[in-house]
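Reading a protein record of the kind used here takes only a little practice. Think of the row as the fold of the chain written in a discrete alphabet. With that in mind, consider the following protein and its fold in token form:
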Amino acid sequence: MADRSSHRAAPVHTHPADVPLLTALAALADPVRLQLVRELAGAAEWSRGCGSFDVPVGKAALSHHFAVLRAAGLVEQRDQGPKRLNRLRREEFDACFPGLLDLVLREEH
């Protein structure tokens, strides 16, 4: 049986410096994407596979949400065997949008 992960296209990543502010804000405005970002912010880099998030959407919608986060420069992904691992691009994103992640990651009162 062939390794299916080898047939998957590598994800395309956008550097935060190439992202307009409104694109970043739109990516963070969705509740599912905000949950993904919050969970990644609390996890070690490259420790969370796409299937490890408890979000109320199916696989296709989850894939779309990660594509939006990649396009906004918030998330980087890499394939490791059958898993696609994720990391929040906190340092790079903060350099381009200082304080934005701090604001959206704060617990709401």
About this structure: The first helix runs from residue 21 to 29. Residues 1-5 have pLDDT under 50 and may be disordered.
